[in-house]
Structure formats: structure tokens, C-alpha cells
């Protein structure tokens, strides 16, 4: 059975005074690992860290965040394309793209793990995605436009893939070298 996406706004802000989460940058090895499937018994712990993850994402600011970006090699992602005064948080556990269009779209991407680096990436324009919500329900929906791009970008993180891996080696190395220089200066 499928259910509506989880839009529980209690995920939208950290409330327990926990230390802010640090977003990893290359060459951290967790960013390059294939994340493991979430088991039903992991969900209680995931629920506890979600407010902190949403806080990190909103503060960045970002429209998505994958667990490996905060050092958790587990298959779950957050997305929220809502405005500041109309949040629309979605938590996707074990997300899978189950269908995609042949039509491709070119869209500029950024990544909180590659700060200040942007490039155009080509991906399927529309996808159908299936995931588990935090209540354990199976959810399916179609996504297009920026939402489709963001979900595909976040699922890539679960495979250890960064948006620069969709570019030529020349362009990828240029961006990664520029980022390494900028991070060294800080
Ligand atoms: O995974 C991430 O690092 C988050 C990333 C998601 C993403 C953005 C754009 C295209 C594909 C994937 C970001 O959120 S980067 C920041 C960003 O692009 C943005 C921030 C605020 C408003 C709109 C966009
Ligand atoms: Zn990213």
C-alpha cells in the first residue's frame, strides 16, 4: 500500500540543543562510500537526528541533504523545496528511482559538500521514486523539474557519487582542485 509523503513539520527545527552537524567535504571517505540500507530497527535513531539534519540543511541554506553528508553511511535523504515561510520537508528512507523519462533536462547544481561550486548537469527530466517514510509506510510519487534533480542528486550521494562525477574529467578535476584550494585557505 502507498501513502502520502511525510510532511510532519516537527522535523523542521532542532529542539534538543544538540551540537550543530558538520557537513563533510572531499576527500572525506564517507562521501565516496555506498551507504547501507536502513533497517526498520534503525528508524527510531534516524528520527532523533532528523531535527538536527533539517537545521543544518536550512541554515546552509540547501534544498536537500543526504545522510552521508553528515557522516552517516545510511540510505536516507531529506528534501525541502518550500519557501522559508512554507516549508515542505520530506524524509525518504531507502529511496529508489523506479522509472525515469528518456527526456533529459540540464540544470545547474550545487552541493553543500562542494561549497560555492556549481555546474550544469544532465539528468532525466521526470522520475518516479519509491521510499519508506519514517512511519514505515511505502510511498511513491512522480517528480519533475528541480525536485527531480534534487532527489536524483541526493540518491547519488547514497551511492558515493557527487554531481561533478557527471561532468568530464577535465571539468571535475578543475572544480575539485579549486575547492581544495578554497578549503585550504579557510
Ligand atoms: O545535496 C546537497 O548538497 C544539497 C544541494 C541540493 C541540490 C541543489 C540544486 C540542484 C541539485 C541538488 C543544495 O541544496 S545546494 C544549495 C542550493 O542549490 C540552493 C539553496 C537554497 C535555495 C535554492 C538552492
Ligand atoms: Zn550534494
Distance from first to last alpha carbon: 49 Å
Shape verdict: globular
State the helical fraction.
25-40%
- Specify the structural class: alpha+beta
Identify the bound ligands: ligand K1U, zinc ion
Spatial extent as radius of gyration:
16 Å
Largest sheet: 5 strands, antiparallel
Whole-number mean pLDDT: 93
Strand order of the largest sheet: 1-2-3-6-7
Order of helices and strands: HEEEEEEEHH
Number of strand segments: 7
Unreliable residue runs: 1-13
Number of helices: 3
What share of the residues does DSSP label as strand, in percent?
15-25%
Characterise this structure.
With 186 residues, the chain is an alpha+beta fold. Helix content is 26%, strand content 24%. The protein contains 3 helices and 7 strands; from the N terminus they run αβββββββαα. The strands form 2 sheets. A 5-stranded antiparallel β-sheet has the order 1-2-3-6-7, sandwiched between helices. Strands 4-5 form a two-stranded antiparallel ribbon. β6 and β7 (138-144) form a beta hairpin. The chain starts with 42 loop residues before the first helix and ends with a helix. The protein binds ligand K1U and zinc ion. Zinc ion (ZN) binds next to α2.
Could you name the key traits of this structure?
binds ligand K1U, disordered N terminus, two-stranded antiparallel ribbon, five-stranded antiparallel beta sheet, 186 residues, 26% helix, alpha+beta, binds zinc ion
Amino acid at each position: 500500500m502507498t501513502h502520502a509523503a511525510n510532511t510532519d513539520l516537527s522535523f523542521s527545527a532542532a529542539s534538543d540543543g544538540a551540537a550543530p552537524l558538520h557537513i563533510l567535504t572531499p576527500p572525506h571517505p564517507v562521501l565516496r562510500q555506498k551507504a547501507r540500507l536502513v533497517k526498520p530497527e534503525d528508524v527510531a535513531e534516524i528520527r532523533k537526528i532528523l531535527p538536527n539534519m533539517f537545521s543544518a540543511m536550512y541554515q546552509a541554506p540547501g534544498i536537500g541533504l543526504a545522510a552521508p553528508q553528515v557522516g552517516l553511511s545510511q540510505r536516507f535523504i531529506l528534501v525541502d523545496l518550500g519557501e522559508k515561510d512554507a516549508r515542505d520537508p520530506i524524509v525518504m528512507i531507502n529511496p529508489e528511482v523506479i522509472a525515469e523519462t528518456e527526456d533529459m533536462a540540464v540544470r545547474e547544481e550545487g552541493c553543500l559538500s562542494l561549497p560555492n561550486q556549481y555546474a550544469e548537469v544532465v539528468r532525466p527530466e521526470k522520475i518516479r521514486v519509491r521510499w519508506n517514510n519514517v512511519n514505515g509506510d511505502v510511498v511513491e510519487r512522480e517528480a519533475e523539474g528541480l525536485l527531480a534533480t534534487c532527489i536524483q542528486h541526493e540518491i547519488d550521494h547514497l551511492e558515493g557519487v557527487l554531481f561533478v562525477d557527471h561532468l568530464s574529467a577535465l571539468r571535475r578535476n578543475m572544480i575539485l582542485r579549486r575547492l581544495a584550494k578554497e578549503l585550504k585557505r579557510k
